[in-house]
Amino acid sequence: GNKIHLVLKTENIPDVVSLKKILPAGLPVYLAVNGKGILHKKIAASAANDAQALLAKVLPNTTVADFYVQHLAAGSELLVSVVRIILLDDILETLRDFSIVSCTLGS
């Protein structure tokens, strides 16, 4: 039917080779990326919530062309997460053999 079943939840997988041993082939993967290179910051919510405005509040003097920006509402604040595009794209390229259906910054 229309149910979601959690087949496997694991953390701290050291490398892609280990992941390939653990993960059954063909399963859709929801990827949560955290750790070195990912910056999280709570900021006050405002009318200007476009990616460039949010990035400027987290990392002034940077351009959105170099970063992926994610934000989640948390009451009157936003939790903004940023990562360099090149870093996340490298991770996704390494995992290209998997069926990644969604990717989020943070757990």
Overall description:
With 107 residues, this protein is of the alpha+beta class. Helices cover 23% and strands 34% of the residues. It has three helices and five strands. The protein has helices at 16-22, 51-58, 85-94; strands at residues 28-33, 38-44, 67-74, 77-84, 99-105. The strands form two sheets. It has a three-stranded antiparallel beta sheet. The longest helix has 10 residues, at 85-94. It is globular. The model has no long low-confidence stretch (mean pLDDT 87).
| H/E topology pattern | HEEHEEHE
Distance between the termini: 27 Å
- Overall shape: globular
Into which percent range does the helicity of residues fall?
10-25%
- Biggest beta-sheet profile: 3 strands, antiparallel
What are its keywords?
107 residues; alpha+beta; 3-stranded antiparallel β-sheet; 5 strands; single chain
Helix and strand arrangement:
Elements: H1 16-22, E1 28-33, E2 38-44, H2 51-58, E3 67-74, E4 77-84, H3 85-94, E5 99-105
Parallel strand pairs: 1-5
Antiparallel strand pairs: 2-4, 3-4
What's the quick description here?
With 107 residues, the chain is an alpha+beta fold. 23% of the residues lie in helices and 34% in strands. The protein has helices at 16-22, 51-58, 85-94, and strands at 28-33, 38-44, 67-74, 77-84, 99-105.
